[in-house]
Write a structure and sequence with these properties.
The chain is mostly beta strands and 286 residues long. Helices cover 8% and strands 44% of the residues. The chain has one domain: Lipovitellin-phosvitin complex, beta-sheet shell regions (Roll), CATH 2.30.230. The chain has two helices and 14 strands; from the N terminus they run βββαβαββββββββββ. A hairpin with a 2-residue loop joins β10 and β11.
């Protein structure tokens, strides 16, 4: 699980094409446009479907953005959206300013809604990076070194939640008859991840590279601390006529260890348990 923030301005690129062409990923917004998405997900046995109602708006600077509200949750667990979660609004944009590529106030929603919110942000962030790195030609490949910690902590239930990744992007294919283009993004571990690891035992590598994923949650009698190695793949289909997202898929495996700890310093913990965490998420336009 990740949520990404990028500074405004030009991002560095490493690309195998040096001559830019028209922006095939460009988003053309229409004031008052209304879209409706359905997101489905699987996370450690939790299966869910949730609706995202998307309204295009324009701010006082003239910048278009999308305001998303979440509703109609269906899952294999007895849970329902609270009034605060139903009234929560997430703002995103496929424009080039980066103004709306930011983590919202996750403390305002129920913990189980953090995943859908940050996954939606991931999809928009990936398209943002592809545009800012001038990914314009079919078959073009770009590697973007980022590595800074991305957070999904809400400060209440999840006290620390970070990963550190770089982006390996390819403009995979175009179907001119269907007016679609497919963008593929591999989220890979950097050489030197920048996640915060508060305990010494978290430093030992869990898998083939340095640990780039960490999560600390409150439990009924202490804390559940996890650390591990994460990669994930994203595939996004966009409409070439206006640049809106038509569908997206995310495959997110994590190899981790988990420990129950009785103190905030995570120094008094039981023996580690190895975990293989797998999340799969799909988004499609209704």
């Amino acid at each position: 699980m990740a949520a990404f923030i990028f500074a405004r301005g030009q991002l560095p690129i490493q690309s195998n094409h040096s001559v830019p062409t028209a922006d095939i990923l460009s988003r053309s917004y229409k004031p008052g446009e209304v879209l409706q998405y359905e997101m489905t997900g699987s996370n450690r046995g939790w299966e869910y479907q949730i609706q995202a109602d998307d309204h295009v708006k324009q701010d006082n600077e003239g910048i278009f953005y999308e305001e998303i509200g979440w509703s109609n949750l269906r899952s294999n667990a007895p849970m329902k959206l609270s009034p605060s979660s139903l009234s929560f609004r997430q703002t995103l944009s496929l424009g080039l300013t980066g103004k709306y590529i930011a983590i919202p106030n996750l403390g305002a929603v129920q913990p189980f809604l953090i995943g859908p919110i940050t996954d939606m942000l991931t999809f928009y962030s990936d398209v943002f990076i592809a545009r800012k790195t001038k990914l314009t030609q079919i078959g073009q490949h770009t590697y973007f070194e980022y590595g800074k910690p991305n957070s999904w902590a809400d400060g209440q239930h999840v006290l620390l939640g970070q990963d550190s990744i770089d982006f390996d992007l390819t403009l995979q294919s175009e179907n001119k008859q269907e007016h679609t283009v497919i963008l593929e993004i591999r989220h890979v571990s950097p050489k030197h991840p920048q996640v915060e690891l508060p305990a010494q035992w978290m430093l030992a590598p869990i898998s083939s590279g340095a640990n780039n994923w960490v999560q600390v949650e409150k439990s009924s009698d202490g804390y559940i601390a996890q650390v591990g190695y994460e990669v994930f793949d994203v595939r996004i289909t966009l409409d070439t006529r206006d640049g809106k997202i038509l569908s997206a898929q995310l495959h997110n495996p994590i190899v981790a260890i988990s420990r129950e700890c009785s103190d905030a310093a995570l120094s008094k913990c039981n023996a580690p348990t190895q975990e293989k965490i797998l999340r799969d998420v799909a988004l499609h336009l209704l």
